User: Fold this.
Amino acid sequence: MKKKILMVLAAFVAAVTFAGCGSSGGGTINVVSREDGSGTRGAFIELTGVQEEKNGQKVDKTTDKATISNSTEVVMSTVKGDTNAIGYVSLGSLSKDVKAVKVEGVAPSVKTVTDGSYKIQRPFNIMTKGEASGVAQDFINYIMSSDGQNVIEKNGYVKVSTNGAYSGTKPSGKITVGGSSSVTPVMEKLKEAYEKVNPNATIEVQESDSTTGVSNAAKGTLDIGMASRDLQGSETSEGLKVTKIAKDGIAVIVNKDNSVDNLTLKQIKNIYTGKTTSWSDVK
Assistant:
């Protein structure tokens, strides 16, 4: 009987210990970040202070122990499967498989991005080499019309234009749009909606990253580039015409079993620079 009681107690202690490690009870924080060139990463490190200035140069201080993922979907699946993981994703791509924490006490939402109370937010930009024409310009007109902005809002992003309904000329032809993997999902929805009102047009959407979208638009290999961040100084001198089509929040996500539900910007910076490595130190 005594041996049986001891076995039960041991099992209970083990269960409590395991549960604690899986819910911010002291486990090692597993940092998940996006790849170099990602607009989401660029905006995130700037807005959270992970990017610092040294000798006049901007330096990304993301810990070298971070797991690097090349898409929003991979970030979410990694965090979903790891109770000690933390990552960040576009608000419009957020799913119920993970938990978005509050930042400085404010939950990410269309409302809090719109009113500015949620601090980690960035623009969705498109760009063309000089003035667009034909299908490219007509598609941009659609995106900025109330029809296109309603598509943007319906998919969880914040609209930025107050233009009226689309009344384009519906030209014929094919264009290629490419770049940011964060902008791609809503661009696919915009493409579908536009091709219904203008069956004369064909739009190919290519997913890569913001830096590739900007550079290929500048080279003229894309009719329209996509970037989920502001353009850098060296990029704005490439003769690009930039149009902001939406605003987006960057949600900081943890596993659903993690008890943490609020982080300050300083705590996020300390986690992503490797200064804070254990969930028990997140207070």
Remarks:
- The CA atoms of residues 2 and 8 lie 10 Å apart.
- Residues 122-249 form a domain with the D-Maltodextrin-Binding Protein; domain 2 fold (CATH 3.40.190.10).
- The longest strand covers residues 240-254.
- Confidence is low (pLDDT under 50) at residues 1-22.
